[in-house]
Amino acid sequence: xxxVTTSKLENxxxxxxxxxLYYYFTPIEDPLxxxxxxxxxxxxxxxxxxxxxxxEGINGTVSGTREQATAYMDAMRADPRFQSMxxxxxxxxxxxxxxxxxxxxxxxxxxxxxxxxxxxxxxxIRLAPKAWLDAMNQPDAIILDGRSDYEYDLGHFRGAIRPDxxxxxxFPAWIDEHLKIPKDRPLLTxxxxxxxxxxLSAYLLEAGFTxxxxxxxxxxxYGKDEATQGARFDGKCYVFxxxxxxPINHTEDQVIVGRCHHCETPTERxxxxxxxxxxxxxxxxxxxxxxxxxxxxxxxxxxYDAQSxxx
Length: 311
Hints:
With 311 residues, this protein is an alpha/beta fold.
């Protein structure tokens, strides 16, 4: 039977809506047929969200009422291909997405690996939240953030390495060039929901690192664990829906690590640059939002103003 993970599922029942986050690596013989099935299922259930389908599996996040979300999980549970897929559940008061999108991709998470990797065959050791916290406390452990730079800037595990990259697919080249540590050092990787670490940890093993582990279920699962209470995660976790971020650390040891793009004031709000051809997502405090009028730079504002005059 498919496993459903949440700290207290009954808490979700107190809200009107649920957000489901899930992925599963399994061979999909006819991705286009599965796309049609998913579109029809989500349309019938009035779900909203984003689903990616590839020959290697499915990766999705959808929102709907409790009844709609439960019906979706039941439907997926009935499909032999996805019986063991794990759903991560968040309660919310409304839809977290403006529409429903189902798309084909060559990979459910793009990772420009120069060598073949298969997360169904080899990944790092999966650590549950308490084991992850214990592993982070090892004095020789290296903690590697498996996300993009802007996600790290909003929140991350204390002491984690910040890879200087804007997309996940850049990781193989970054590892080969920058990760110069002894191959047998304990190497801990984490990401939002776990999917990126499936490929990241597999590649690290292919690259010769021998002591690789990953946070099972990702940051969002860690933040729901009652034993750890999100300890040692500073800031908030960036999420790819209209919430933008979620709190993880529920201990008294909480800090804001996000800094305004313009003035370095502590902040946890992202905005997109007002200039559409830039649209740079950046952290911005209240004062700088007014002062810079939503632009990430003076060049973007000047170009926008010049185009507005000529249009």
